[in-house]
Amino acid sequence: MTTIMPEGENIRKAVKWISEMRKDDSSLTLAKLVEEACAKFDLSPKKANYLLGFFTKKE
User: Would you tell me which of 7, 10, 16, 17 could form a disulfide with 41, CB atoms 3.0–4.6 Å apart?
Assistant: First the structure.
């Protein structure tokens, strides 16, 4: 199954940022990183749900 990424540069930046942060510090929780990414990249709750699903399905 393919996950379709929502449109927008900010969501792509958030995915990249979360990926990098998880590599640097594995103790950070996904929920905390998504929360921080939403604030940092001005993402909607819908996009926050997308990020949670995206990283949960990858694992």
Answer: 10
Is position 17 within any domain?
Answer: yes
pLDDT band (50, 70, 90) for residue 24: very high
> Residue 59: which pLDDT band, with cuts at 50, 70 and 90?
low
**Residue 25 counted as domain residue:** yes
Count of structural domains, the chain? 1
Range(s) of the domain holding residue 44: 9-58
**13 domain residue, yes or no:** yes
C-alpha 18/C-alpha 59 separation (Å) is 14
| Alpha-carbon distance values, 14 to 2, 21, 22, 29 (Å) | 19, 10, 12, 15
